Amino acid sequence: MSEYEREARRQRLEARRGAGIDPFPARVGAYTPLGDVRRIHGEKDGDALEAEAIEVAVCGRVMAHRSFGKLVFVDLREDGETIQVSGRKQTLDAETFGHLKECDVGDFLRVEGVLWRTRSDELTVDARAVDLLAKALRPMPEKWHGLVDVETRYRQRYLDLLVNKDARRIALVRSRATSALRGFLDGRGFLEVETPVLQPLYGGAAARPFQTHYNALDQDLFLRISDELYLKRLVVGGLDRVYEIAHNFRNEGISFKHSPEFTMMECYQAYADYLDMMELVQGLVQHVVQETLGELSITWRDASIDFSGDWPRISMRDAILEATDGELDVLADEDWRARQQALRQRGVDVREQPTWATFVDEVFSVLVEPKLEQPTFVVNHPAELSPLAKRSPDDPRLVERFELFAGGIELANAFSELNDPDDQRLRFEEQRDAAAQGDDEAHPLDEDYLVALEHGMPPTGGLGVGIDRLVMLLTGASHIRETILFPQLRDRG
Fold first, then answer.
1. CATH of domain 162-312+374-483
2. CB atoms < 10 A from the CB of 48, how many?
3. Using CA atoms, how far apart are residues 414 and 419, in angstroms rounded to an integer?
4. pTM
5. Highest mean pLDDT: which of 18-22, 425-429, 438-442, 469-473?
6. Residue 312: exposed, middle, or buried by beta-carbon count in 10 A (0-12, 13-18, 19+)?
7. Alpha-carbon 169 to chain mean position
8. Nearest CA to 359 among 379, 341, 377?
9. Domain 3-140 has CATH 2.60.40.10
């Protein structure tokens, strides 16, 4: 914005004050929302409006201003709805006409007037009185091409929402999706709860945490990476169905599907296992998609994704076998390091891994995950990757776990929760050993949680759903930052 324009706006501000007009009044006065004006009168033609002489009072931000000498047109926007306002010199006193003619794009106005239609059939409020509700001292971008810089869009999200209809659409879809998710779980007897964001010991996932300091207690704390261990404490305490929609924080990289601050819904159901969680999450996602979009088929990244029906289930082993045309059986008694090297020599972009379990996960992530476009459950993961899940009764190297994929990204993760405190202690100790060997995402040993398990936890199924990623699919957003109103950004310098 030029200094000249900023100064001109300030001069108009001071002129209003000099005329005894408060440019930021405390009261608005009665008005009709623009959505209601359009709903009630939007279908009436010009003759009907003229015959009824409908008087309305409306409020909104000035989005466009056009002056033609003795006639002024202003577009007002309020809560996503827009209406045109006209001001005619011959029907307004000089002061009111001057106020309307000299208002700036970005100002907030309250207008009283009579509805009519222009020659182009535009529903319009012919002004009789105009009040300034708030003066804008900076202009909005005149065109969307004036706000193309991605960093600017996210830093000044308020401008993005004002001039980019898609940004507003994504925000509204996210809100509707979250409401639908809550309604589904509430209807099935789940209790929404809240657990600590600041934790003396992080846990519930394999991730590196953010750390902070609590001055009053002189204690180092961590921002939660998951609310799992606290929610399962509640199950121990007799709250058999609980869920939380929580902000989690993981000190990791940023990609189109990763954000260091993200939103996760986690729920836990007593007397259930991971198979029950499959049924639950399928019903939940189908409900959210239907309630939000009105249909179960969506388009994302030029692919059509159908959420209807029962979704297929495939083991991680079989998925890798299929992706490698039967060449790589990750459960076979072969040297996995040699197989890892063979893949790398063939040009497969798998990073070198320190353990068999991380090798399996890496191969799956590279060769399988991007191809899982339709909703698919991938089951039976290596136990080392899942220290909080029950071992498979068929193969102790694996656990009763699934991940839900759609559009080539993970949407949900679930376990048959480990409720044997002795096995849980052993797994924590294995994770502690991994941390000692340099694994900065290893799970810490949580003695307090083990004490809770020793008091007894019933068989329990647990589920986590990534809200941001689900909204990506619902809206067609290409990057997770599009679904977060205020994503983390680098310093300006």
1. 3.30.930.10
2. 13
3. 15
4. 0.92
5. 469-473
6. exposed
7. 12
8. 341
9. no
